[in-house]
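Wed. Picked up where I left off yesterday with HTH araC/xylS-type domain-containing protein. The coffee machine is broken again, so keeping this brief.
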Amino acid sequence: MAPRTFARRFQQETGTTPYRWLLRQRVLLAQELLEGTDETVDSVAGRAGFGNAATLRHHFLRVLSTTPHAYRRTLRGADPAGLRQGACPRPSRLSRRAAAGAGGQSFGTVG
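Structure written out below (tokens, as returned):
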């Protein structure tokens, strides 16, 4: 299949471009790693495919309107007054998958 045909059919099935879908999946993985590990943000960035903390921070802010550090701090209860302004509440796994579109993994059938 030609790359343009793939991109067009991917968008028809998922409602987003392959690039945006991939970025969202990387942010979801980073969220999981920030929630479940004590790894540094640099390490999380590398494991999630962003390469470095600055790139992770950029995409995290665009998708979730918060930084990786603020996200982790909020999850660990370091913000007793509730969420800082601009911080994102911890979404359930189901809502994160729904936000990723089509269960986060489904591509449907591409003829």
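Quick read: The radius of gyration is 15 Å.
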